[in-house]
Amino acid sequence: MKPTTLGDLRTGSWEARAGWSVKDEMRRNLTRKLKAGTPVFPGIVGYEDSVTPQIINAILSRHNFILLGLRGQAKTRILRQLTDLLDEEIPVIAGSELNDDPFCPVSAEGRRIVEAEGNATPITWLPREARYIEKLATPDVTVADIIGDIDPIKAARLGTRLGDELSVHFGLLPRANRGIFAMNELPDLSGKVQVALFNIMQEGDVQIKGYPIRLPLDIVLVFSANPEDYTARGKIITPLKDRLGSEIRTHYPRTLAEGMAITRQEAWIEREAPVRMANFMVEMIEEVAFQARDDSRVDKHSGVSQRLPISLMENVVSNAERRSLRFGEPRAIARVTDLYASLSAVTGKLELEYEGELKGGEAVARDIVRRAVGQVFARRAMDIDTSSIVDYFESDNSLKVPDTLATGELVEIFALVPGLLEVAAELAEGQGRDDLGAAAEFVLEGLYARKQVARSEERGYTAVESEVTQVTARRRWN
Length: 478
Prior knowledge:
Layout: H1 6-10, H2 22-36, H3 51-60, E1 65-68, H4 75-81, E2 89-93, H5 108-117, E3 123-127, E4 132-136, H6 143-146, E5 148-150, H7 152-158, E6 168-170, H8 172-175, E7 179-184, H9 191-202, E8 205-208, E9 211-214, E10 219-225, H10 238-242, E11 246-249, H11 256-266, E12 275-276, H12 279-294, H13 307-327, E13 332-333, H14 336-340, H15 344-347, H16 354-359, H17 361-380, H18 387-394, H19 410-414, H20 420-427, H21 433-449, E14 453-456, E15 460-463, H22 467-477
């Protein structure tokens, strides 16, 4: 049975932990995980040799730290997983606002309770989840929100002067005492709040409405920010930056395999009726994000979130699911056409430069998707001869692929192109007609993306016009 009073607590093992800080607690639990070989941040992919070791070093060093990175780099998820390094629960003085340690209360209220009750001081147990407080920084956040404010009504009710600690209505930071306080987008705080923050971080004191108050909090402070803002030219004040022990840079997936693993892990693709998705489809979805990050029309300072391929995969699956329900397909299968039908998952996640704004978000997204298809096709069909397919279209033939047929039924239409089904069979990842149909469409779209065939709304797939043909056509229209 857990102790319920300070006296019970003193006779147990908790007395030995008196004076231990939260940073000591996290360090102790982290060393246990490392010795046992337990993952420190389960579900975080691609940081094993870069970000994770730096975070481990910061915790072992008992540092407050900041994660610097563009949007969609798992910064908030990492901060929230820090609670796994806390004890399952800790004892606190019942009724204290600041989660006071029964052996060493920091608040005037906690000290008063211990002095009055002694060993009979009532104890409650605080779970690790309640010891994490998170705040998104915005310019309108005030010192009162973070640190606290004088409450005249409270002072009048207690009969204390305004400068007394008992008259303070505490903010989020003091209420995170003996826990973790996380703040996202730190530079968005006003300079006044940043000053109050570094004051309480280093010296443990703060001025509230001109009254100096001492709050020696036991707390771990962790932050996140965009690297562009976290500079001398940005919106962070130097003294606050100087008081953070470690500055850790996050990054987007460095390889396609890492990105695909993250997207598969996070995307909701388990539908009532399973949707089949070939590996080349998964690869193309991830390649869209990689192409977007390299595109000169996309703002590099804003970045391209990993949420883009996650949302894109969910939309691709949904479009395949919709087609399956509409045409009564025996099983849903994702196709390249689903990729183009899911541009709504791309356009909202791209911050465009001036050139991109002129062209339009949907046009830029369509170009990025086409380049992604071309890249994947080039990798997968590197040693496959597609000359017979190209020759067919260069012989003034065209192929219109209707959007009113199930995927398996398209095979008969694709059979009109010599060699197409043979090439598709080499790329197909199943034995069904729908697998062959999806692969054949991938081949045609790959050749289109590589500019070996053309595609138009009127005629479908056709030959690529030569420069002479294009000039003649322009003269005819002019």
